Amino acid sequence: MMTMSTEQYFSTELLAWYRLQKRDLPWRQNRDPYRIWVSEIMLQQTRVDTVIPYYLRFMEKFPTVRALAEAPEEEVLKCWEGLGYYSRARNLQAGARTVADLYDGIIPDDTASVSGLKGVGPYTTGAIMSIAFNRPEPAVDGNVMRVLSRYFCLEEDIARPATRVSIEKLAASLIPEGEAGDFNQALMELGALVCTPKSPGCLTCPVMEHCAARIAGRELELPVKTKAKPPRVELRASVIVTGRGEQEGKVLVRQRPDSGLLAGMWELPHILLPDGGKMWFPESERERNSEATEQLARLVDEEAGVLIRPHGIREDADHLFSHIHWKMRIYEADTGKADDAVEPLAAAEAPAPYHVSSPYRWIGKEDMGELPFPNLFLRILNDYWEGKRQR
DNA sequence: AAATCGGGGAC
DNA sequence: GTCCCAGATTT
């Protein structure tokens, strides 16, 4: 028998293992490039179990490229609500519109064209080309970098962009003839099910015999990855404004700008406060509260033309992003009326009452289903509608 | 090369 | 608490 290289052994054994062990996932029902595309975008930095319910709802609502291309952006974001990295949804729809307009609604079997779609980077290009079209392109994600770092005992820092490039070349060289789709998925499946970050299951690994890291007893040291910086702390003040009269029982919300953090999503109005030691309770909590509520009142007056009277603290909430840690205090406020005995705060020029410029809206509980909210505000508002008392 | 983009599951 | 997940884009 001909001797087999460790590379040939790896690809052959991995592929055989995958065909026996692969999970039955919704996007593996067929090779429809659109279904593969949507799944790969959703799976970016997101676990399979988290994606599945979103994927099923999304495919039901937007079953084809054209359905997605023709939908209002707000509906797409609403379908993405809670999944995070919302630019993925906006880019995906932009890509769908490109395919609808330029490629007659058919995703082209062409690497350069697929790579040119918004939100489709090196990994997703390889995933779509290999899984949907069986083209021999590498698809290197975190799983693949971990698996190959261990099997070949590579010590390059996988946090460095250059490392992904070099591992792509290695991964491409390992693709068996005519088996790109299954091989790439097999690499990722092994990383997800066996060659896991914490306690890899070397005893059940199909390629353990020739795994360099395991042989060297170094599987727990690899891959090498520099640690991320801790998120910066931001102190924020937000407000639930409850309406009166025309707006009885409604709450004032606003839409975020169409770029940057949580782009296009809806939220409660809030402001960034100066550091102040990043604590809500220095000696002078009262001054801090009055300064925050005054600024909020000024903001809501100027941006929405609504006069408010803050009357208490609803809750404090922490929300963690990858790079920012929001420490937010949520106040409660009423809307002032012209004939009120109590003078509302920020009663400056007294603009037209209840006039709300476009990024602001009064909404009731029944409107929550219309607008996309990030998780923090979704939770706060749902608690509010359920009548939960805070503090 | 580094920062910016969410949220949650596993430990 | 930590790590990191079927990463892409911007600076």
Automatic annotation (TrEMBL):
<dbReference type="InterPro" id="IPR005760">
    <property type="entry name" value="A/G_AdeGlyc_MutY"/>
</dbReference>
<keyword id="KW-0234">DNA repair</keyword>
<protein>
    <recommendedName>
        <fullName>Adenine DNA glycosylase</fullName>
        <ecNumber>3.2.2.31</ecNumber>
    </recommendedName>
</protein>
<keyword id="KW-0479">Metal-binding</keyword>
<dbReference type="InterPro" id="IPR011257">
    <property type="entry name" value="DNA_glycosylase"/>
</dbReference>
<dbReference type="Pfam" id="PF00730">
    <property type="entry name" value="HhH-GPD"/>
</dbReference>
<feature type="domain" description="HhH-GPD">
    <location>
        <begin position="42"/>
        <end position="193"/>
    </location>
</feature>
<dbReference type="InterPro" id="IPR015797">
    <property type="entry name" value="NUDIX_hydrolase-like_dom_sf"/>
</dbReference>
<keyword id="KW-0004">4Fe-4S</keyword>
<comment type="function">
    <text>Adenine glycosylase active on G-A mispairs.</text>
</comment>
<dbReference type="InterPro" id="IPR004035">
    <property type="entry name" value="Endouclease-III_FeS-bd_BS"/>
</dbReference>
<dbReference type="InterPro" id="IPR023170">
    <property type="entry name" value="HhH_base_excis_C"/>
</dbReference>
<dbReference type="InterPro" id="IPR003265">
    <property type="entry name" value="HhH-GPD_domain"/>
</dbReference>
<keyword id="KW-0326">Glycosidase</keyword>
<dbReference type="InterPro" id="IPR029119">
    <property type="entry name" value="MutY_C"/>
</dbReference>
<keyword id="KW-0378">Hydrolase</keyword>
<dbReference type="Pfam" id="PF14815">
    <property type="entry name" value="NUDIX_4"/>
</dbReference>
<dbReference type="InterPro" id="IPR003651">
    <property type="entry name" value="Endonuclease3_FeS-loop_motif"/>
</dbReference>
<dbReference type="InterPro" id="IPR044298">
    <property type="entry name" value="MIG/MutY"/>
</dbReference>
<keyword id="KW-0227">DNA damage</keyword>
<keyword id="KW-0411">Iron-sulfur</keyword>
<keyword id="KW-0408">Iron</keyword>
<dbReference type="GO" id="GO:0000701">
    <property type="term" value="F:purine-specific mismatch base pair DNA N-glycosylase activity"/>
</dbReference>
<comment type="similarity">
    <text>Belongs to the Nth/MutY family.</text>
</comment>
